[in-house]
Amino acid sequence: MGDRKKINLLTGNFPEDLKYMSNDELELLTYDIRDFLIENVSKTGGHLASNLGVVELTIALHTVFDSPRDKIIWDVGHQSYVHKILTGRADRFSSLRQYGGMSGFPKREESPHDCFDTGHSSNSISAAAGIAAARDLNGDDFAVIAVIGDGALTGGLAFEALNNAGASKSKMIIIVNDNGMSISKNIGGVSQHLSNLRMSSTYLDFKKQVKKTLKGIPRVGESLYSGIEHLRDSIKYAMVEGALFEEFGFKYMGPFDGHNIEDLTTALMLAKNVEGPVVLHVLTKKGKGYRNSETSPDKFHGVAPFNPSTGLPLKAADGFSYSQVFGNKMIQLAGRNEKVVAICAAMINGTGLDKYAAKYPNRIFDVGIAEGHAVSFAAGLAVAGYRPVVAIYSTFLQRAYDQMMIDVCMQKLPVIFAIDRAGNVGADGETHHGVFDLSYLNHMPNMTVLAPADGTELAEMFEYALTLDGPCAIRYPRGEALDFSTVYNGEYGTIFKNRDIFKGGDVVIFAVGKMLSIAYEVCLNLRDAGLDVGLINARSIHPLDEESIISAAKASKRIITIEDNVISGGFGQQVVTLLLNNDINIPCRNIGWPEYFVEHGNDKELFGKYKLDVEGISERVRDFIEG
């Protein structure tokens, strides 16, 4: 393979060229695409393993269908890099996930080939069903294809969509990209069902033989074949445990080798010509073609820039991440209290619970990509006397709002929410920024909300949460855990109360969570410039530490709040309301993210653009004092 001439992905007329290439040429193209992915993602970071696994499938899709006329919806969308390469965007890959550059997910504003913006799991079938319904109402004629992973099928929304789409009889194709993985290894009934289907070649071969034999009988063959439908179903259910998709009203085809382009194109052509909804089951290997990712697909799901030869990150972490601090604390808590259990939604490693799972395998529950179920499941455990800790990324916990409100808060159950990746998360962009959690947590009755500024506070807050008789949410950012022990002189004080750092007569800054480190630098700069600036670590978000806020307001001329959350409904607006309700008339400014979906980019660029870095906040504080 080393001497062959490579296909130029930058100058090719894709996807049109695919339709004129032989199977051998398409096969050679897979090597070029994988080389291109490894070379580029190693520089920018991104989702690698999932894209390496869908190279052949994506080529086959664009060979058989005519995008953008035919609509392809990628569930989650982190596996859409190959789709982007084959729709004229290969020359933009140096800007992947970079500020002002190409998104790591499908974006309608980026290309007409991206027909639906995605980023969260399990919604592709719903979106496809809606697009297909609109097509039918308009009398149009184009294909609608949803590509959904077996992990995303664990989400309840996918089943709601299957139920509706199957009953509608509308023509659409659901491709189940089955690699046995989401981020962690898939578990549960759906995964088991797909495993059974993978082994169903015996049934398929038997079915073909019965059909051939009966239809070969002169004059009566067709009627005999039709008349034994009940018998055929009995055989099917005996040999394949539950034909799930056919029960929903879909024609099931598969399983097919997801790395055989010839078989895939044939299967897609057949599915294209079937009337009504079809499920095409495709078996792929996550991380295929790159030894490091094949061996550890979970580690190469989402990666920072790395060395392609070794697979190791270019920049090693200096200390413990907040996720690791949480995971280590969970081991301590579980060792002291046998009622402590952990729950996550297909993110054991991502939430730092891998070591906990190894030590307490019977006290961790990975429920799959089903955040709403995770919360109600935790409520059931709490009612039965356990102390469940639900570890979910901030952006994904949004999917469980109703269950948090009704199943947990209304019953005042002692469920602890470990909210990872809170605040702006950089390159993953709009769908992954966790900048809304304070706004949707603050108004939940009975909910305690805490925000640590460093790793020690995070650990101590979980100790405190276990003493409560109601729910508690602890939100913390991604990345390396900070250390404020020297600033505090080792005295952290009462962990559920605010912590004074500087007194200030001109202005007092209340900083939430990770923003304390930025606010601290701001204070040092301004105090060196002769301004009397105070600083308080706002650890208690709900309920507010009213004594701390009112006391500061009476001792200073102005108040500023800084949070890694949208301003609307956040900590700052609560402070303003508290002061108004207590007839304290003092100028206030709230600093946070604007009330719209912030683009992707690294922290330095985004915090700088929105004046949330040291320089930007210093300027805003100075203007507030002088204005």
Report on this structure.
With 627 residues, the protein is of the alpha/beta class. Helix content is 41%, strand content 14%. Strands 7-6-8-9-11-10-15 form a seven-stranded mixed β-sheet, with helices on both faces. A five-stranded parallel β-sheet has the order 1-2-3-5-4, sandwiched between helices. Strands 12-14-13-16-17 form a five-stranded mixed β-sheet, sandwiched between helices. It starts with 22 loop residues before the first helix and ends with a helix. It has four domains: 16-200 and 247-295, Rossmann fold, CATH 3.40.50.970; 201-239, no CATH class; 322-475, Thiamin diphosphate (ThDP)-binding fold, Pyr/PP domains (Rossmann fold), CATH 3.40.50.970; 499-626, Rossmann fold, CATH 3.40.50.
The CATH architecture of the largest domain comes to 3-Layer(aba) Sandwich
Query: Per CATH, what is the topology of the largest domain?
Result: Rossmann fold
Average of per-residue pLDDT values:
90
CATH top level assignment of the largest domain: Alpha Beta
Ends apart, CA distance between termini: 69 Å
Number of domains: 4
